[in-house]
Amino acid sequence: MALRLAVPAMTAQLPPGVTHVDCSTLDMPNAYVVVDDNETTLVDAGWPGDEQTVRDGLHTAGVEPGDIDRVLVTHYDADHVGTLARLTPALDAPVYVHERDAPYVAGDRLPPWTARNGIGALHRLYYRRLDLPDLPIRAVVDGDDIGGFHAYHTPGHTPGHVAYVHEDLSVAFLGDLAYGLGDRLKPTGWLTSSDAAAVESSVRSLCRRAPAFEYACPGHGPPLPDGDDRLAEALP
């Protein structure tokens, strides 16, 4: 979960095949639908209450839940996995999440009480009543290629946070590594981070390691053009 502020937005016109799903529940997370090479990928999935919004986004992209070939989860927070159980049984695809966050999404473990300046307790309580997807969970590690996406381990917001970069589409799906604020990106702050210093290190690492990308697609706030430049500009 990340905080989202009401600031006039500058939203990128995303490339063909990439659909932004602007969810409306609570902190208004983003999901994205990517249709590339006849494969459909859902990146993150909003809160449970965003089910209809996600279904509408899939319809806008010209697909249905049953067409999804894979789900990429940037991290375990409920506002990024919430609709998955509600899209089943039509949704029948593996869910990819970093190995450090995978036990939570799989339902094998609850988020720790003490993480993230007390907000971890809220996540743990919410997870106690969250329906998790009965789908195959695939553990991701840094450097994995999943279809056209390359996984970059970007810890800080959660220990297993991942950014996914699709080089052919020139899009980076940032999750809660950074959020869109007007025409800028801002690294996720200390309040919602497991390790705020690691967030900054992860931003630097992604800027250094990833190929140039035109579009930055954060987990909250508007997708932005000139994505790699804006992410670099977010650093102090």
Keyword list:
globular; five-stranded mixed beta sheet; six-stranded mixed beta sheet; 236 residues; 13 strands; Metallo-beta-lactamase, Chain A; 7 helices; disordered N terminus
In short:
The chain has 236 residues and is of the alpha/beta class. The chain is 22% helix and 24% strand.
How does this structure look, described?
- The chain has about 240 residues and is α/β, with parallel strands linked by helices.
- The chain has one domain (about 20-235): Metallo-beta-lactamase, Chain A (4-Layer Sandwich), CATH 3.60.15.
- It is about 20% helix and about 25% strand.
- The chain has helices spanning about 50-60, 80, 85, 100-105, 120-130, 195-210, 225-235; strands spanning about 20, 30-35, 40-45, 70, 95-100, 135-140, 145, 150-155, 160-165, 170-175, 180, 185, 215-220.
- The strands form three sheets. Strands 1-2-3-4-5-6 form a six-stranded mixed β-sheet, covered by helices on one side. Strands 7-8-9-10-13 form a five-stranded mixed β-sheet, covered by helices on one side. The protein has a two-stranded antiparallel sheet with strand order 11-12.
- The longest helix has 14 residues, at about 195-210.
- The chain starts with 17 loop residues before the first strand and ends with a helix.
- About 45% of the residues are buried.
- This is Metallo-beta-lactamase domain-containing protein.
- InterPro entries: Metallo-B-lactamas, NDM-1-like, RibonucZ/Hydroxyglut_hydro.
- It holds the Pfam family Lactamase_B.
